Amino acid sequence: MKISSVITDTQKKTARYAKALGHPVRMYVMDLLSKQSCCYSGDLTEELPIAKSTLSQHLKELKEAGLIQGEIESPKIKYCINKENWAEAQQLFKSFFNL
Amino acid sequence: MKISSVITDTQKKTARYAKALGHPVRMYVMDLLSKQSCCYSGDLTEELPIAKSTLSQHLKELKEAGLIQGEIESPKIKYCINKENWAEAQQLFKSFFNL
DNA sequence: ATATTTGTTCGTAATTTAACGAACAACAAT
DNA sequence: ATTGTTGTTCGTTAAATTACGAACAAATAT
């Protein structure tokens, strides 16, 4: 798969962010974080009707996509938006959608 | 407690569009269509280093997500952006990213 | 009538995603 | 030292995704 020749890095980056946002739970989390920038994983577990292990997986994906980062506040973990990458995603989608 | 009770329709819709855009090939196609609104499937086959059957699958997904629609211009098929849904997606991401 | 062009569908295979409960690790509180 | 809280990791399962070539269908061109 030599997509690299035709598809630009920008398109690949945008697709990567889109993929991370392509699930209702992850969209919910990012929607929340875009408004308050931080939240506790425990709060999400209470709100969302999914197993904590499932939530953990979704948070991991958002982390790997670079959209969030976790800060340890024992015994809790505070999840915050990754401002730098969030700004990048913002810019990418802004351009993509001609906003 | 179902997902439907916590996660809004807006979030689900946005996630659905995001998912459709979450692949480099589909991002490439939509990026093109956002600029010229229509294109021939055959042109894409030439440009992209993937089998035509694979491309067909990706186009089908974009169609099912409501982002594009095909018009028969025998023997070719002209793919066009679905303006109504594209506008919706634009709006959804605009709100989501606070643009 | 036959061949060509165009794109979808079929059959298949490998990989990824999504979900759960159980087990585990880290740390606080008792 | 033991208990409780919090969240990750493990093991498993089912379903979806991605990809390909071959076969097919529809329409045009020869």
What can you see in these coordinates?
2 copies of one chain form a homodimer. Chain A has 99 residues and is an alpha+beta fold. Chain A has one domain (8-96): Winged helix-like DNA-binding domain superfamily/Winged helix DNA-binding domain (Arc Repressor Mutant, subunit A), CATH 1.10.10. Chain A is 60% helix and 15% strand. Chain A has helices at 9-20, 24-36, 41-47, 52-64, 83-96, and strands spanning 38-40, 68-73, 76-81. A 3-stranded antiparallel β-sheet of chain A has the order 1-3-2. In chain A, a hairpin with a 2-residue loop joins β2 (68-73) and β3. The longest helix of chain A is centred in the last third of the chain and has 14 residues, at 83-96. The A-B interface holds A 1-3, 5-7, 11-12, 14-16, 18-28, 30-31, 34, 47-50, 89-90, 93-94, 96-99 and B 1-3, 5-7, 11-12, 14-16, 18-28, 30-31, 34, 47-50, 89-90, 93-94, 96-99. Chain A binds a DNA duplex (30 and 30 nucleotides) through residues 1, 23, 41-42, 45, 50-61, 72, 74-77.
